[in-house]
Amino acid sequence: MEVRVVDIEPARVACLRHTGPFGPALGEFWHNVVAPWLQANGLTGRVTYGVAMDDPGNTPPEKCRYDACVEVGHDDPAPPPAALATIPGGRYAVVDYYGPAQGIGDIWYAFYTQGLPETGLKSRPGPCFERYAADFRTDPETGEFACELFIPID
């Protein structure tokens, strides 16, 4: 696993919240709720984020919170039913992911338990997130996609 360190600027985002188990339910949330909302509000073709608000390792599945977010301008309102938030800027450990949705949980686990410790980096409080490029696409035949996984570090 290739871990790199990056510094990012804060990003203003509009977010839709999913509460419940992670895994396949998140893919359904993006497909059935988020994508139509993005389309209806002219927000396609922008950088998006998936922000895990809770650690599924120590939060009951039905209480796990996840925000699907899209970058918006400094003065843009949040199209209903979204809320405005900020992806915190700062220093992050990052790994690239390419594969199907069902494999991303394993990569997150490996990142935390192997990738981060092997680099000697220490996580700091704050949300972990996935960042999806503005030209994000899923391979229609395989379901594979690319994103970056971010863990805040000291």
Written description of the protein model:
By secondary structure, the chain is of the alpha+beta class. It is built from two helices and eight strands. An eight-stranded antiparallel sheet has the order 1-6-8-7-3-4-2-5, with helices on one face. The chain is globular.
In short:
The chain has one domain: Regulatory factor, effector binding domain (Multidrug-efflux Transporter 1 Regulator Bmrr, Chain A). Helices cover 21% and strands 35% of the residues. It has two helices and eight strands.
Category by helix and strand content: alpha+beta
Indicate the mean pLDDT. 94
Number of helices: 2
- For the termini, the CA-CA separation is 20 Å
Computed over alpha carbons, the radius of gyration is 15 Å
Q: Biggest sheet, open or closed, and with what strands and sense?
A: 8 strands, antiparallel
**Parts with pLDDT < 50 across at least 5 consecutive residues:** none
* CATH class identity: Alpha Beta
Can you tag this structure with a few keywords?
2 helices; Multidrug-efflux Transporter 1 Regulator Bmrr, Chain A; alpha+beta
Topology overview:
Elements: E1 4-8, E2 11-19, H1 24-40, E3 48-52, E4 65-71, E5 83-87, E6 90-99, H2 104-119, E7 128-132, E8 145-152
Antiparallel strand pairs: 1-6, 2-4, 2-5, 3-4, 3-7, 6-8, 7-8
